[in-house]
UniProtKB/TrEMBL annotation:
Keyword Metal-binding part of the UniProt annotation: yes
Record flagged with keyword Transit peptide: no
Assigned keywords, A-Z: Copper, Electron transport, Membrane, Metal-binding, Transmembrane, Transmembrane helix, Transport
Gene Ontology molecular functions: copper ion binding; electron transfer activity
Transmembrane segments: 21-41
Blue (type 1) copper domain: residues covered: 99-184, 231-319
PANTHER family from the UniProt entry: AURACYANIN-B, COPPER-RESISTANT CUPROPROTEIN COPI
Pfam families associated with the record: Copper-bind
Entries under PROSITE patterns matching the protein: COPPER_BLUE, MULTICOPPER_OXIDASE1
Protein name: Blue (Type1) copper domain-containing protein
Organism of origin: Candidatus Nitrosopumilus sediminis
């Protein structure tokens, strides 16, 4: 029996070259995607790292009894990405602004990722690390961060005196500079004390926005000298309060109970109806229901800037 010992080629050198080129292309594209999202891959700490950082040691959320503060924060980065900050780089105005507030006050954070990396946000009492984030203060998470151009809103209510910190919660970013202080002082007069438990008593009030013919004098229900002008409201701490506000004027108006009538941002007890940025148009109305907070003297006002000074304010007393 004879055998054919001639060499048999399973493929050609040209086909091998094409296969190698395809494999090389796949490796290059995959590597580009992986390293292009490098900051994302490292943004989620291992479980043991999160435990060491105190990720489960949360401070308890508090109840608002004071004013409301709005703070805008933008994540920014230096051109070499070595320095990170909020709003401005170190040495520039508004770098990592310090927030001063009192026990019972609330901060509303409007957060925007103005950088080119991935970021997330939260408030902690821990002087170091990225753990201990207070529930409700988070915007995104290190495991699901804000991409460039994205943003979000969160809230923090100061429950006790001391120093808190707002940070980027992506591991390492705080150390690179993304951290600011929140200094919490004692409760202010007018918002001091502790709110009573719900009493089961309900009150309903109707307040109408009215204006003089020349628009120089503004008021609730009636103009100065007329019956029903800016009536005092008196309730007990823990009472349920419903306010209905109607815009009977020709201008734009909004409502809120505040701790300081000269500060339209000092809204307390989640008592807002509309807002200065989205007010009630002529003929529109709205209502809000809230629980009366700690005893003290507060004020109900039109929260459109300047309107309280023109007369749209009355006294809201909590006993």
């Amino acid at each position: 029996m004879s055998h054919d010992n001639s060499q048999v080629y399973r493929t050609t050198s040209a086909r091998t070259g094409k296969m190698m080129a395809i494999m090389l292309g796949i490796c290059i594209v995959g590597g580009a995607i992986f390293f292009g999202m490098w900051d994302y891959w490292i943004s989620q700490p291992a479980p043991v790292v999160a435990m060491m950082a105190g990720g489960d040691d949360h401070a308890a959320p508090a109840t608002q009894t004071g004013k409301t503060i709005t703070q805008d924060l933008r994540f920014i980065e230096s051109s070499d990405f070595r320095t990170l900050a909020f709003n401005a780089l170190p040495g520039e105005p508004d770098n990592n602004p310090t927030i001063n507030m009192n026990v019972g006050d609330k901060v509303i954070f409007n957060v925007e990722n103005a950088g080119k990396s991935f970021h997330s946000f939260g408030v902690t009492k821990d002087a170091e690390g990225f753990g201990g984030i207070i529930p409700g203060s988070e915007v995104a998470l290190a495991s699901n961060p804000l991409k460039p151009g994205e943003g979000g809103t969160s809230e923090f209510v100061a429950g006790e005196e001391g120093t808190y910190y707002y940070i980027c919660t992506v591991p390492g970013h705080r150390d690179q500079g993304m951290v600011g202080e929140i200094i919490v002082g004692p409760a202010q007069a007018g918002s001091s004390g502790v709110a009573a438990a719900p009493t089961g008593v309900s009150h309903d009030f109707t307040l109408d926005f009215v204006e003089s013919a020349d628009f120089r004098t503004l008021a609730f229900n009636a103009l100065p000298g007329e019956e029903g002008h800016n009536p005092d409201i008196r309730v007990n701490s823990g009472d349920k309060v419903t306010v209905t506000a109607n815009n009977l004027g020709k201008s734009f108006h909004a409502f809120g109970v505040v701790s300081n009538p000269e500060d339209f941002n000092s809204i307390v007890m989640d008592s807002a109806i509309a807002a200065a940025t989205n007010p009630l148009k002529p003929g529109e109305g709205g209502s809000v229901t809230f629980t009366a907070g700690a005893p003290g003297t507060y004020y109900y006002i039109c929260t459109v800037p300047g309107h309280a000074l023109q007369g749209m304010q009355g006294t809201f007393i909590v006993e």
